């Protein structure tokens, strides 16, 4: 029987998952907001739906699996705002539903470790919106929901190399600040493993093994390129946008034991050193 994935907000991580599923003869329906992006999806073997606008009922009727990448907005989760009742009516039809959230739901822990059992206490507006969205999806009875809390995403087209080459990369130093991150290929592997081994109600942190200060990542990228390491800038005095500064409001190390122990995932890129090396090799070979 053909499996059909309905992907709401078919973006960067969802496209990586598609590259695993399409060779396995999955049908994938992905929503996007523009004609240009719809054409790109079609070229990748995805059946595009421009949404809002398209009638999603036929796609919902066909779906065996659902992936939600769309971020909440001021009105809450956009998928549930439009289709809550239709999804709830079909909860028993779906074999797997995945919601892509963020490790920002844990809030600030002053550089300490967190795992999936850590209470959700976000300090940013984005994190608070994600907690509400997680709860709204989890409240649908009988929905086989799995939540994936993603760390900072990098991968092809999303890495530090362009800014380092352009001379716009910044090494902003905030003592004790650490971030966790994840390569998009490992996100896709986690999602594919979860589809193979559903565990409704579970939440998974998706990150590598090596939370690190952001300035170290920039420095390593510069070293790989053979370019000067950008000068250090003090967080307390540097000029930054409010959005950029908000990323430094929370510091934590995120544990990923559950994706290994429950899903059997062996990370392709367990640290930023291996991830950036592979990314640069791919750019050079492209």
Percentage of residues assigned to helices: 25-40%
Number of helices: 11
The SSE order reads: EHEHEHEHEEHEEHEEHEHEHEHH
Looking at CATH, the homologous superfamily of the domain at 4-152 and 183-207 and 255-268 is: NAD(P)-binding Rossmann-like Domain
Record the SSE blueprint.
Elements: E1 4-8, H1 12-21, E2 27-32, H2 35-43, E3 47-50, H3 57-62, E4 65-68, H4 78-89, E5 96-102, E6 113-114, H5 125-138, E7 145-150, E8 152-154, H6 161-166, E9 171-173, E10 181-183, H7 184-196, E11 203-206, H8 214-225, E12 232-234, H9 242-246, E13 253-254, H10 257-261, H11 272-285
Parallel strand pairs: 1-2, 1-4, 2-3, 4-5, 5-7, 6-13, 7-11, 8-10, 9-12
Write structural notes for this entry.
- With 286 residues, the chain is an alpha/beta fold.
- It has a domain at 4-152 and 183-207 and 255-268: Rossmann fold (3-Layer(aba) Sandwich), CATH 3.40.50.
- It has helices at 12-21, 35-43, 57-62, 78-89, 125-138, 161-166, 184-196, 214-225, 242-246, 257-261, 272-285; strands spanning 4-8, 27-32, 47-50, 65-68, 96-102, 113-114, 145-150, 152-154, 171-173, 181-183, 203-206, 232-234, 253-254.
- The strands form four sheets. The chain has a seven-stranded parallel beta sheet, sandwiched between helices.
- The longest helix is centred in the middle third of the chain and has 14 residues, at 125-138.
């Amino acid at each position: 029987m053909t499996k059909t994935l309905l992907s709401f907000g078919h973006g960067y991580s969802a496209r990586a998952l598609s590259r695993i599923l399409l060779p396995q003869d999955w049908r994938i329906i992905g929503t996007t907001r523009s004609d240009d992006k719809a054409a790109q999806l079609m070229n990748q073997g995805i059946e595009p739906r421009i949404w809002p606008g398209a009638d999603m009922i036929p796609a919902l009727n066909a779906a065996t699996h659902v992936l939600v990448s769309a971020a909440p907005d001021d009105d809450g989760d956009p998928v549930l705002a439009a289709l809550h009742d239709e999804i709830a009516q079909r909860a028993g039809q779906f074999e797997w539903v995945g919601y892509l959230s963020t490790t920002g739901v844990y809030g600030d822990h002053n550089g300490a470790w967190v795992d999936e059992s850590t209470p959700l206490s976000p300090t940013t507006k984005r994190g608070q919106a994600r907690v509400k969205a997680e709860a709204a999806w989890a409240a649908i009875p009988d929905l086989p929901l799995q939540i994936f809390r993603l760390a900072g995403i990098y991968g092809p087209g999303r890495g530090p190399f362009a800014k380092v080459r352009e001379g716009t990369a910044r090494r902003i130093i905030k003592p004790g600040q650490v971030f966790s991150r994840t390569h998009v290929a490992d996100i896709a592997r986690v999602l594919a493993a979860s589809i193979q081994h559903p565990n409704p109600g579970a939440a998974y942190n998706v990150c590598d093994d090596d939370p690190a200060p952001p300035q170290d990542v920039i420095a390593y990228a510069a070293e790989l390129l053979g370019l000067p390491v950008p000068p250090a800038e003090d967080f307390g005095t540097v000029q930054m946008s409010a959005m950029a500064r908000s990323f430094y409001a929370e510091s934590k190390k995120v544990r990923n034991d559950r994706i290994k122990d429950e899903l059997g995932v062996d990370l392709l890129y367990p640290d930023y050193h291996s991830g950036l090396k592979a990314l640069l090799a791919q750019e050079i070979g492209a």
